[in-house]
Amino acid sequence: MTELVRNYIDGQWVEAKSGATFDSINPATEEVVAPIVKSGVEDLDLAVQAAKRAYAKWRLVPAPRRGEILYRVGQLLLEHKEDLARLMTQEMGKVITEARGDVQEAIDMAFFMGGEGRRLLGYTAPVEMPNKFGMALRDSIGVVALITPWNFPIAIPSWKSLPALIAGNTIVFKPASDTPKLGAEFVRIFAEAGIPEGVFNIVLGPGGPIGNAIADHPDVRVISFTGSTEVGYDLYARAARKGKKVSLELGGKNAIIVMDDANLELAVEAILWSAFGTTGQRCTATSRLIVQKGIRAKLTEALVARTKALKLGYGLDPSVQVGPVVSARAREGIHEYVQIGKGEGARMLCGGEMTGDESNQGKGYFYKPTLFDNVTPNMRIAQEEIFGPVLSIIETEDLDSAIQINNSVAYGLSSSLFTENVNAAFRAIRDLTTGIVYINHGTTGAEIQFPFGGTRGTGNGMREAGQTALDSFTEWKSVYVDYSGRLQRAQIDTDEVLKD
Q1: Which residues of 444-458 are buried (b: 16+ CB within 10 A; e: fewer)?
Q2: Are strands 143-147 and 170-174 parallel, antiparallel or unpaired?
Q3: Backbone angles phi, psi at 57, to 5 degrees
Q4: Taking a C-beta distance cutoff of 8 angstroms, is the pair 130, 500 a contact?
Q5: Confidence class of residue 500 from pLDDT cuts 50, 70 and 90?
Q6: Which of 148, 235, 411, 434 is the most buried (most CB within 10 A)?
Q7: Which of 38, 41, 231 is nearest to 148 (CA)?
Q8: Is 35 exposed, middle or buried (0-12, 13-18, 19+ CB in 10 A)?
Q9: Helix %, strand %, coil % for the chain, to 5?
């Protein structure tokens, strides 16, 4: 039996107080990856109290020294990249090449945020009175709780934890219950890098009870959540009653727009990657394809042929292109949406079937990549997040109508336009109301030096990655130093300045 995966609290690997456990399951083989401790509210409180105690010292560690630990984290992630990637394929199903990319994002973020330890930029500005100086500084906040999803189980925790730590906060980390072992291995890297006891804690277990306890706990000052829109908004409302700072990254209903003048071959490659990479289980995945009338037939024909040829299977096989979805429950939800699409009158061109791995007695939670045609913008499959390998093709007359369709959904994370017309490209950049816009590229992929996040139902206006990630984990402090030797009242004594 694989060793029990435990919580990490105050520098120690410990079992849950209840003694209860649950199993992490490989979605490709349905085998047990590892037994996991099943934590409760008491375990969370122990972690929060450890983080609260550690904050008193950690906040005073000079930021460049904190950055040195993050550099070590980046180096250790690099050294353990292949092991983490293989575990990711085993625990959540992502094919091995994508799993390596997931870990690489964390490596990049560690080195980027390590560098912020020598910046954490504030600013100075002129003040109204003579012999007076003004500046604005970033200040740490306290205990930060991170609640992360299973689909990017190393990258997304890195987007949250690294800026929180470089800013001087301490952490309680609650990873998704579908990827708990990966969460524990991520924290193990920080422990090996020399993070002080209590600065980074992890609590493993079910999301509902622990999430509610995080929202209610008086010593948790900040919550950073990535997950479903419904759960995120419930958490947001609950935390607001306690006056907590909350950062939300929620759903997406992303679209690629393809104009008649697009590079057809490039568009097909990007659409396949964006719609069916990570088996469609990305908040940035393409689930709508808005196609201009003139290119629709050729594009659809090419997509059907290429989609049918995608190889499904266990992602440790490097020839596999599409892995399983994360769980049986997730697969059932995807299939329900496929039935809804049929009922709405959309035409299914391929896919639409639950399946298993033929080389492993039909085991695994696989779903065939699915294409729908004759989809109208108001259908549920064109409006609601499916979070699986389902792509809906919507015909449009021109760029203006395409942009209108793109902007008509409840989410605003990512959008894409394929065109050879530079004027059309810049109009789209201006008018697409999403947090991320791609030109001649799919809707997946992010680089850590730029803000990541969306508009409308995708979140609450906060951003991850880049320098903007620090906004979630810092407060601004304005400082004035008056060396005039007299009382000077800004906005009141300004006329006296001209008399001096």
Answers
A1: bbbebeebbbbebbb
A2: parallel
A3: -95, -40
A4: yes
A5: low
A6: 148
A7: 231
A8: middle
A9: 40, 25, 35
CA–CA separation, 435 and 372 (whole Å): 26
* Alpha-carbon separation of residue 120 from 125, 413, 452, 468 (angstroms): 17, 27, 19, 11
C-alpha count within 13 angstroms, C-beta hemisphere, residue 139? 9
Neighbours of 108 (CB within 10 A): 18
Q: Give start and end residues of each alpha helix (H) in 200-292.
A: 207-216, 229-240, 264-276
Count the alpha carbons within 13 Å of 427 in the hemisphere toward its beta carbon. Answer: 15
pTM above 0.85, yes or no: yes
pLDDT tens, 109-143?
999 999 999 999 999 999 999 999 999 999 999 99
312: DSSP letter:
B
Q: Any alpha helices (H) in 277-369, and if so which ranges?
A: 293-308, 328-343
Q: What is the CA radius of gyration of the chain?
A: 25
pLDDT tens-digit profile of 383-396? 999 999 999 999 99
Q: How many CB atoms lie within 10 A of CB 70?
A: 27
| CATH topology match: 7-250+459-478 vs 254-439 | no
Whole-angstrom Cα distance, residue 4 to residue 37?
A: 7
User: Is 283 assigned a catalytic role?
Assistant: yes
DSSP 369-417: -EEEES--TTSHHHHS---SSEEEEEEESSHHHHHHHHTTSSEESEEEE
Q: Which CATH class is domain 7-250+459-478?
A: alpha beta
Buried b (16+ CB within 10 A) or exposed e, 247-278: bbbbbbbbbbbbbbebeeeebbebbbbbbbbb
Give the amino acid at 379: M
Phi, psi (rounded to 5 degrees) for 216 = -90, -20
Instruction: Report yes or no: 417 and 426 within 8 Å, Cβ to Cβ.
Output: no
Given 249, 385, 395, 464, the catalytic residue: 249
Active-site option among 91, 105, 283, 464: 283
Phi, psi of 485 (to 5 degrees): 80, 10
Domain boundaries of the chain, sorted by first residue: 7-250+459-478, 254-439
Q: How far apart are CA 312 and CA 381, in angstroms?
A: 23
Sign of torsion over alpha carbons 483, 485, 488, 494: negative
Q: What is the DSSP string of 277-291?
A: GGGG-STT-EEEEEE
pLDDT, tens only, 69-107: 999 999 999 999 999 999 999 999 999 999 999 999 999
Query: What is the number of H-type helices and E-type strands within the chain?
Result: 16, 23
The answer as to CATH 3.30.465.10 being correct for domain 254-439 is: no
Residue 244 to residues 209, 235, 379, Cα–Cα distance (Å): 18, 11, 37
